[in-house]
Design goal:
Number of helices: 7
Helix content: 25-40%
Number of domains: 2
CATH class of the largest domain: Alpha Beta
Strand content: 15-25%
Radius of gyration: 33 Å
Shape: elongated
Number of strands: 12
Order of helices and strands: HHEHHEEEEEHEHEEEHEE
Strand order of the largest sheet: 6-5-4-7-8-9-10-11-12
Largest sheet: 9 strands, mixed
């Protein structure tokens, strides 16, 4: 079929045709902008992609409520303006995992984003409490330095017999005696020690465990002492400095025990507080 052009089509000004073409381009561009803004709103501003739930794996000693609270605090602090808080797209999972590891005092943590609005945490816990012996009483202290409970004699004997073993299970709480403690005893919910101090104690016992260091008991003279006295199964003590590298001191102890002569009898103590140098009596 042959299409016939009318005189009006033929004589239509070029300006009119160019105007209609320009209008079509403008409408297409406008619709494109609307579509982009719509998708941007859908992905970055709508509640669909706002974190609604946190799934937690590996929790044993920690409280799930505390983990969730700290997690939401970290996510809220990392808000990227102008996006809605807790937007899963702009959330940096690696940075959140790094902050969680420090806040929760855990061995490891992984954060996975499960779209559209779920965060999945996988925690590898470490020991977060320690039992402190004061005079004739024992108290459990959490990682924040707070007394959480008093430990009964029967429970203490059971824990102490396992806590000093090199192959003890990870759930057993380490026991630390403070030999020169005096004054009134603390009460539950009292702040007993600074968080950094408790972290030092926990790190020390964690290293002893990892290096397979068996002993009978561990003690310090005062609460803020850094000299750790280890009562060995043998008839001598070992001294460590909790402000120095425990790994290096334990390695020095093992090297000395392996290399010492048969006539080098240890009767009282081995002082391993200076890495690379061992003193004994």
């Amino acid at each position: 079929m042959i299409k016939c052009h009318t005189r009006s089509d033929i004589n239509e000004p070029m300006a009119n045709r160019a105007g209609r073409s320009s209008n079509r381009r403008a409408i297409t561009a406008f619709l494109g902008v609307v579509a982009v803004l719509g998708w941007a709103y859908f992905f970055f501003f709508s509640e669909i992609f706002t974190v609604q739930a946190i799934e937690i794996e590996g929790v044993q000693r920690l409280k799930r409520g505390e983990v969730e609270r700290i997690m939401y605090d970290i996510v809220d602090q990392g808000r990227v303006w102008p996006f809605r808080a807790r937007n899963i797209f702009v959330l940096n999972a690696d940075e959140v995992a790094k902050q969680l590891k420090n806040e929760l005092y855990v061995e490891g943590v992984a954060v996975d984003k499960q779209y559209p609005n779920i965060l999945r945490l996988k925690l590898e816990e470490r020991q977060t409490t320690i039992i402190v012996m004061l005079q004739e009483s024992a108290f459990e202290v959490d990682r924040h330095g707070i007394i959480t409970r008093e430990v009964g004699a029967d429970e203490l004997r059971s824990i102490a017999s396992s806590a000093s073993s090199s192959d003890r299970p990870g759930s057993v709480i380490p026991v630390l005696s403070i030999t020169s403690a005096s004054g009134s005893l603390p009460m539950v919910d009292d702040e007993f020690a600074a968080e950094s101090q408790v972290a030092r104690w926990l790190d020390t016992f964690d290293t002893l465990k990892k290096r397979g260091f068996g002993y009978r008991s561990a003690s310090i003279e005062l609460k803020d002492s850094t000299k750790l006295k280890i009562d060995m199964h043998e008839s001598y003590d070992v001294y460590f400095d909790m402000l120095s590298s425990m790994e290096a001191q334990i390695e020095g102890f093992y090297a000395f025990m392996k290399a010492k002569n048969a006539d080098q009898t240890v009767r009282e103590y081995i002082d391993a507080r200076i890495p690379g140098k061992i003193y004994f009596k």
